[in-house]
Design goal:
globular, Rossmann fold, 46% helix, single chain, alpha/beta
Length: 252
């Protein structure tokens, strides 16, 4: 992936797109996704890992609810990675990640992921540049293992929200009773470190780009959901999955 500056990437939908058209297309894709999920589960040959990264209030929870909420919950799992527990911190940084990867037939969603260990840790000076390079290599080997040896399709999304939109969403958590439970004063502290986060995200995109990241403009939820639904739909469609036939039995 070529180097770029996140500050120069638009966080809104292209002007030529129409909101209602995209919402209708998303609705239709989600209907088809339910069938593709059924195929994925029935065939049992592939797994899907969806990685969601982004600044606080970029809309990761909303994506999980709106894009994946209509799928069969028996085949969709969500893992959220926050501050490591004492047990997790006593292991290597991929230990808590690896035990949450999807088995064949399942869809696994990571709300934040192993990339936190080369992002927030670097922003706050807990991880040196040298250690980060070692972790980049470990992440690449890990993702390659999942792709080549477990037929895991990995989709990595960075939800790109502007500073202005992020500020509005964080402030809404202080006034909207339905969102007050999300309020955390530390989110404002982290938001002020945007430029540092941009720097380290850009290094993730550069060093861990197989599979490549999808940068999702996320100021408008309808467009964010459209982009992610389409990527998931297209990726599953390309697998050309088929329902298993009846097993052959010996005639008596």
């Amino acid at each position: 992936m070529p180097q770029f500056n996140l500050s120069n990437i638009d966080s809104k939908a292209p002007e030529h797109l129409h909101k209602e058209d995209c919402k209708e297309q998303t609705k239709e894709m989600l209907k088809d996704l339910a069938e593709l999920q059924n195929l994925l589960y029935a065939e049992g040959k592939h797994a899907l890992l969806v990685i969601l990264q982004g600044m606080d209030a970029s809309g990761k929870d909303g994506v999980i609810r709106k894009v994946f909420g209509r799928l069969n919950p028996q085949g969709v799992r969500v893992a959220s990675f926050k501050v490591p527990t004492e047990e997790e911190a006593a292991h290597d940084f991929l230990w808590r990640i690896h035990k949450n990867v999807p088995r064949k037939g399942d869809i696994q969603i990571f709300n934040r992921s192993h990339y936190e260990d080369v992002l927030v840790t670097r922003v706050h000076g807990w991880c040196s540049d040298e250690l980060a390079q070692e972790r980049f290599a470990a992440i690449n080997h890990f993702e390659n293992l999942l792709q080549r040896h477990n037929n895991t399709v990995i989709l990595k999304f960075y939800l790109h929200v502007s500073a202005e939109e992020q500020r509005e969403r964080l402030q809404e958590r202080m006034t909207n009773p339905a969102k007050m439970w999300k309020y955390n004063q530390k989110d404002f502290v982290e938001a002020a470190l945007r430029e540092k986060y941009y720097r380290y995200y850009q290094e993730c995109f550069e060093h861990c780009n197989q599979p490549e990241w999808t940068i999702v403009p996320s100021d408008q939820n309808w467009y964010k959901e459209y982009v992610i639904a389409k990527k998931v739909f297209d990726s599953l469609k390309q697998l050309k999955m088929e329902y298993p036939s009846l097993p052959q039995t010996n005639a008596v």
